[in-house]
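One-letter codes give the sequence; backbone shape is given numerically. An example follows:

. . .
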Amino acid sequence: MANPVPGQRSAPYKRILLKLSGEALAGQAGYGIDTDVLNVLADEIKRIHDKGVQIGIVIGGGNIFRGIKGATKGMDRASADYMGMLATVLNCLALQDALEHAGVHTRVQSAIEMQELAEPYIRRKAVRHLEKNRVVIFGAGTGNPYFTTDTTAALRAMEVGSEVVLKATKVDGIYDSDPRENSKAKWFDEVSYIEVLQRGLKVMDSTAISLCMDNQLPIIVFDLNQKGALEDIVNGKAVGTLVR
């Protein structure tokens, strides 16, 4: 991607994949779903949706249940992961409700079939929804245990032809160490996929990074709590850290 003007990274994006952590929906409580946070998030998404940006969303389930954490406490890993996938569907339905109240037409597609709650994931149908300017929220991960929602985000982004993965976090990009614990942590404006893997930078899991690297899909890591950041990014402005 070229830099057309100072302060910009690219031309405006037309189709994006937004990756949200489940914890982002929990607010200050750290667990469950905070409706105030949901409504703010829905307004941010609506702002870019109204500009004609086609939006796919993948949400984690860590605010309700995290598969890996369950496995470390003695649960069977596959069973724990399936429970985590169901937790993501709860978050998807909550975000769908907030978006619909904001006037945004939304579809939830689940990798695990549950017809009363969501459509089954069908790639061509998801693309058609995006073309009709509906927000598509992808639930239940990949439908398989041992894969994270980071990997789901990379996979779905490539399947539906997104131009970028936008990874929303609680910090303003990628650092060489946790800035909340190390005041001298170095912030990166831009970093390569290989450097992320070699240095073990905590962006997305290694499977997701490798998928993006193999398919030249850029990732932008940004602070979800920075008002207007999402809109600035889709307008091509330099916000957060770019991985490419």
In short: The two ends are 9 Å apart (CA to CA). The CA atoms of residues 123 and 137 lie 12 Å apart.
